[in-house]
Structure formats: structure tokens, C-alpha cells
Amino acid sequence: MQRSLNIDPGKCTGCRQCEMACSYENEGVFNPSKSRIKVFTFDAEARFVPYTCTQCSEAWCMQACPVDAIKVNLATGAKEVHADLCVGCKVCTIACPFGTINYNASSGKVMKCDLCEGDPACAKACPTQAITFVDSNWTGLDKMRAWAAKTDTGARAN
Amino acid sequence: MGWARKILRVNLTAGTVKVEPLNMEWAQKYLGSRGLGTKYLVEEIDPKVDPLSPDNKLIFATGPLTGTMASTGGRYTVITKGALTGAIACSNSGGFFGAELKFAGWDMIIFEGKAPSPVFLFVEDGNARLLPADHLWGKSVWDTEHAIKAELQDPLVRVSTIGVAGEKGVKYACIVNDLHRAAGRSGVGTVMGSKNLKAVAVRGTEGVKVRDFLGFLKASETAKGVLAGNAVTGQGLPTYGTQVLMNVINETGAMPTRNHRDIQFEGAHKISAEAMAEKRPTDGKPNLVANQACFGCTIACGRVSMIDKTHYTVVNRPQYWGASGGLEYEAAWALGSNTGVDDLEALTFANFICNEQGFDPISFGATVSAAMELYETGALTKEQTGGIELRFGSAEALTQIAELTGKGEGFGAEIGLGSKRLCEKYGHPEFHMGVKGQEFPAYDSRGIQGMGLTYATSNRGACHLRSYTVASEVLGIPEKTDPLATDGKAGLVKAFQDATAAFDSAGICIFTSFAWTLQDVAPQVDAAIEGGWSVDRMVETGERIWNLERQFNLAAGFTAADDTLPKRLLSEPATSGPAKGRVNDLAKMLPEYYDIRGWTTDGVPTNETLARLAL
Predict the structure, then answer these.
(1) Would B187 disulfide with which of A24, B83, B373, B478, CB 3.0-4.6 Å?
(2) Is the CB of A33 less than 8 angstroms away from the CB of B103?
(3) Looking at the complex, does the CB of residue A35 fall below 8 Å from at least one CB of chain B?
């Protein structure tokens, strides 16, 4: 089964454990500035919103890359940057409508979420289950369940 | 590893910045943050220095766990000689600034001297420079943070700043980071203002390494599980915040009310955690909007609130309509019960003003309550207060005086003196409710005896965060003791003081200690840094730090005579509740405490004690 990161900002407290876990997984150091997932705090509304790549099926970044450095991992569905091929031209960062692929000046390559080969560190580190890793076909399940409960009248047929 | 091994020395007089290696011998003895910063301060300043003179120094220090994946590992401490107290000051803050400073590669920043005109420091990884802040002087905490981010064209910088209160010399001004997290007590922001230093802006992209990553991840994950499984840190604090205590402490009969004249507040239920979560009749929304975590924190106790837009304090004032740091227990008590005000929205507004202009709601609320007592006894007149009727229970008086204090205007400038100086000025020093010039926090020591000893001996003046024996005496952590008994409290206070110094110096939040003991902390510290950090070594380090702070205060001129409580607590019996009829029996606990500490009967560490602790 293919899985996707499912993010529920309503559960996020803004603690950044996800950013720490991501940076350690990918860079071997605690360094949120190198995290592929980022938590945004909207102070006036007191909302904390983690955001990262959604792994588009026909990914703009992948299609824009002139050297085919971004490839699909068939096992996970993740669009992965192959650092040995990436030339750091940043065309993908322009092509991505969501801003979730970014240039890393330290490495001279781009970086994006690769779902940690099917075991995302951010989801494991999240203390409130604001980030979970669920069936790609049913990312709407929780919302559907909530709405199902709301639309239920409680009536029983005799 | 764990430590960045690098400190930044900023001479504000000369306008220079200099990189120095961290003194690793001291790091091994004092761990980091509170302990290590104190060691640097003690070595570098004359203890008798005027806190507001350029010869005082101001140190921002991170700990070895700051910027790691340890839960709550994002704290920094500001160490200086306190403007409010003249004693050692070490005020700890969460938010995100501390971790950012560590990510930029620094254990510590030492500010010395005084800038000829306002400046702010910008640290971008290994580069640091002083920039003019004339255009920021006079701006609030909130406006300063926004202005600096815009000026640097970097929304990711973290800003720690003073508001107008710190500029105007309010004696209990804070240093506020991330809009509403504060190094709150003892007037560390006042010292910053006296140096013409408006703010510190940091952007860090170098990251933090630890000695043994795999061992560290294992230890920190286990410890996170302990927090999650604990009733206080896993449920109580995230759901109710520290406000979970309001009703508990009120029922214990230890909630100071109307400048400690009473010990229980009839309006407690109106300003409690439960009240914050209730939907308001006016707009159908609760005061509490969210719980927010500081960096790396898996507890997330922080309260974020929004004020009712129809409340008198904010009508037609949209700058206060957004969310900001809401009432923690200490603020709700100081601004509420202690002034007799039970209007939740008014308290929230006063708290927002504390956030906005950077001053400590505990000392502020306590000073207002002392002023209210002066006013009601006739020692202070309406002419002197500028027309404000400073009566207990008046929300209008509270919110009006909060705005004036934040800007150092009118009678607010006098409230900014703190209660000791204010009460002395108006001829009633006995109305000052505090120790070593610092106002009490939210526990009346007639109802919780151990807290009397805690306050009397706290190195930074009256404070609940040096040895929170409430945990044992009320909550039963780690084991229940009788709050009305004095037996055994000397040992309890010492144990809490030493452990707390170790927690603080590691770079984590003391709230973890509701669930963690040093048995949970030591493995994390040990995996982060070199040196073999056992529980015993942590305890010994904590005791060393405590004695170092004590020595500084003794050299600054404090004596055993300052280890005391106001007459009211020692001789006026509690009026109600389980402690009715009781005073604080400090005299029964203090000699035993000195003895257990290895101090003389005059409260001076003996040579044997100093030698044992390698001081």
C-alpha cells in the first residue's frame, strides 16, 4: 500500500520536533534550517501549520528538471532528488507551485521530502499525531468520519 | 558536541564583537546555561557593582541540551546582576530564540559596557555585528520584532528584545523573545535597557551535534515517553496549562489575595483554567485559543488567548484583537487574586501589555496590590496616583496602570519601582511582600510552609522556580509531604534547589521535573557531552552552582538577615482555609537548612563545603 503524509494543523503545537527529526535523518545533525518539512506559526491566529511536499503524481519539479535528477521511487511513490545528478540549477524550485523543493546552499543541490524510504522521521517524532503516515487512497478518512458523524441524524429504521 | 565551544563577547562601549573559545574546564564544572553563565559573570564583574552601570555585564547562555531533540531543549538563560534585587539574576526563557542561538554556533553571548546610542546585535551563524537601533528605541516588543524582520529581509530570524519598559528603567523589565516568551524576573530587561541594547536577532543554520547521536536519540525518546505518560506533563499541563493550579492552590489555602492580607480568593473560579476554556456569553468564543509549545517541547503548556473584542480594554483597538501569550497561573494570580480583580478579560489585557512592553506580570501585579493597600490605608492619595482610584478589585485601575507602567508614564513610573521601593517611598515598608527586593510568586508560605524557606533562601529573591516544593507539598511529586509541617522541609528545599540548578543548566525546562528526575535527565546530558554525566555528578553540579550564586550574593553585601520573610507572613495568621491561624515558621527551618547546606549559622558556606564542591 502506498502511504502519504497526512497533516492536521489542528493538532500541531508548533514544537518543531518534526523539523529536528527530518534534519537529523537527512543531514545527520539537529538543524531545522535543513529540514524538508517546515512548521509555520501564524501568531495572530495562534495556528501552527506543518507543510511539506505532497508528492504530486505528475510532479512539476520532476518534469522541469533538465537533467532528470528527480525520479519516482516506485516503492513509496516519493519523488526523490538524486544528488549525484542534480546540478543545482534551481529550475525545479521555480516550477513547484508549492515551494516545497528548495535549494541547499551548503550542498549546492536541491532538497525535498523523500518520505524517508517509506518511514518518515517527522511522523515518528510528532508528539501529537499532527503528522501521520496513512493510506494514500484514504487521506480524507478522518474528515469523512467527522462529517459522517455530523450528518448522522441518529434515526433507526424501526 | 552538545556545547558549541564558542562564545561571543560584545563590547557595547567600543562597538566590537569578538569570538572566544568556551572555557571547557568551567563547562565541565558548571554544565551550561544558568551555571556556566553565572561562573562567567562571577569571574568578570565586581559583585558590588551598580546593576545599571556599564560595569555590570549581561550574559545570554544556552545549555548543552539547547537545540537538541531533547524535549523542551530550547531554553536560554539571561544572567546578570539584577536591577530589581541587586542579587544574582538568572532568568530563563523558552520560545525559539535559545535554540536558534545554538544553531548559529554559540554557547553564550557576553555583553559588556554601554553603547553610546541604541544598538541591536545581529548574529548570522559565525558573523555578528552591532547595528543602529535609534529607529527601534521607543518601540514595543511586538513592533521591534516585526521591524527587525522587515529590515533584515528575513522572516526566519529570531528576536529577543526589550520593550519600552526596559528602556524606561522599570525595575522588573523582561527580555522577551518570540513575541511572548520572556526571561521574566529580577529586571534583566532593565539591565539590557541601561546598556542601550534594544534587541538581539539571530539566524542559525549550522545545527547542533551531540557526542553520541544514537545513544542520545534513545535516551531522549525514552524520556519523552515518561513525559507523555505522566498525568501532569501528559495531560494536566497541555490541557489546562499552569492554570491547572488556580483552584488547587486556592483550596489548599495558599493563594495570596489582596497583597497577602487573605489567603483564598473568592473570585478564583472566574479566572481559572476552566474559565479560560468556557465560551463567553458576549461572543460565544473562549478566552483560550490554543496551547503552544516552545521549541522541542512535547508538553506544550503555553496558553495563547484572544481578548473579547467588545471588552472595554480593546474596543476600537485592533492591535489587541490578535492572539498573544495568555494567562499562566502566575500572571492570573498576580494580576488577579492579588489585586482582587476577577475580570478574566481585563487580566488577559494586562498580560498582553506585559508581553507588548516587556515587564514581569508577577512583580507588576504584586506592586499594584501593594499600591492598592497603600491607597486604601490613605498612605497614597488620588492626587498622587494621577487620579486613578487604586482600589482592590478595580479592573479599570489595573488595566490603566498596566499601560502607564509599560510606557513609564505618570504613576506607572512609580509602579515601575517595584513594591519594595514604592512601599518605602510612601512610608510603609511592611507592605512589601517579597524577599531581597523581589516580589513573591503565587504561593502563600503560611499555607505551604516549605515555600517560606524556598523564598527566604532563593538566590534571586522570592521565586518559585528555585525550589518548587509545591510539587511535593501539594501535588505529591516525587512524594507527598504535609504543606503545614516544617519537619523535613530544610532537606526538601535543598534537594529541590540543587536539582533545579542542574535542570536549568542543562538547557531544558523545569516543568519536565513534574515527571522527570535527574535519572531521566542525566542519560540525555551524558549522551550529548563529554565528561561522564551521572545523576550524582548532576546533583553535585547543582549544589556547586547554588553555592556559587550564594557566594556572589554574600560578596554583593547580602547577609543571613536577608534570608527572611515579611512580618505579615511571620506574624499575621492566615485568615481562612486549612492553614487558618498559621504563620510561616521560618525560624524552625532556616537553621537546619544552613546546617544541611554546610554553611555557618550566619549562612556562609564553610571552607569544608567550598572545598568539597571545588569552589
Answers:
(1) B83
(2) yes
(3) no
Q: Give the other-Cβ count within 10 Å of B341's Cβ.
A: 28
- Closest residue in chain B to residue A126, using alpha carbons only: B298
Asked whether residue A10 is domain-assigned, the answer is yes
Per DSSP, the three-state class of B462 is coil
b/e sequence A75-112, b meaning 16+ C-beta within 10 Å: ebebbbbeeeebeeeeebbeebeeebbbbbeeeebbbb
- pTM of the predicted model over 0.90: yes
Calculate Rg over the CA atoms of chain A: 18
Q: Which residues of B touch A111 (CB under 8 A)?
A: none
Give residues with Cβ within 8 angstroms of A105, minimum separation 6.
none
Of B69, B96, B323, the CB nearest to A46: B323
CA proximity to A93, closest of A58, A52, A61: A61
Query: For chain A, what is the domain count?
Result: 1
Closest residue in chain A to residue B238, using alpha carbons only: A13
Q: How confident is the model at residue B1 (pLDDT cuts 50, 70, 90)?
A: confident
Flag whether pLDDT at A77 surpasses 80: yes
CB pairs under 8 A between A and B: 82
Taking an 8 Å cut-off on Cβ atoms, the answer to whether B300 and A43 are in contact is: no
Q: Compute the Cα dihedral for B338, B339, B341, B347 and give only its sign.
A: negative
The per-residue pLDDT for range B195-237, each reduced to its tens digit, is: 999 999 999 999 999 999 999 999 999 999 999 999 999 999 9
Contact of B235 with chain A, judged by CB distance below 8 Å, is answered with no
Is A31 part of any domain?
yes
A38-65 burial: b if 16+ Cβ within 10 Å, else e: bbebebeebbbbbebbebeeebbbbebb
**Nearest-by-CA chain A residue for B210:** A29
Closest chain B CA to residue A12: B292
The answer to the question of residue A156 being in a domain is no
Phi, psi values for residue B77, rounded to 5°: -125, 140
Query: Of B208, B172, B176, which is closest to residue B190 (Cα–Cα)?
Result: B172
Q: Which residues of B touch A106 (CB under 8 A)?
A: 205
Q: Is the dihedral of CA A56, A62, A63, A64 positive or negative?
A: positive
Distance from CA of A146 to the nearest CA of B (A): 21
Distance CA B356, CA B43 (A): 34
Answer whether residue A157 is part of any domain.
no
Min CA distance, B374 vs chain A (Å)?
A: 38
Residues 423-482 of B with CB under 8 A from A: none
Cell matching residue B252: 489548599
Measured in angstroms, the CA of B72 and the nearest CA of chain A are apart by 9
Do B397 and B364 touch, CB atoms closer than 8 A?
no
Give the nearest partner residue to A31 out of B207, B217, B306, using CB atoms. Answer: B207
Residue with cell 563529554: B530
What CATH number did the domain enclosing A75 receive? 3.30.70.20
Query: Residue B22: which of B102, B94, B87 has the closest Cα?
Result: B102
As a whole number, mean pLDDT of residues B248-271 equals 97
Domain with A15 in it: 3-150
Query: In this complex, do A34 and B228 lie within 8 Å of one another by their Cβ atoms?
Result: no
End-to-end distance of chain B based on CA atoms, in angstroms?
26
Do A37 and A22 form a contact (C-beta atoms < 8 A)? yes
B282 has a pLDDT exceeding 80:
yes
CA distance A80 to A62: 9
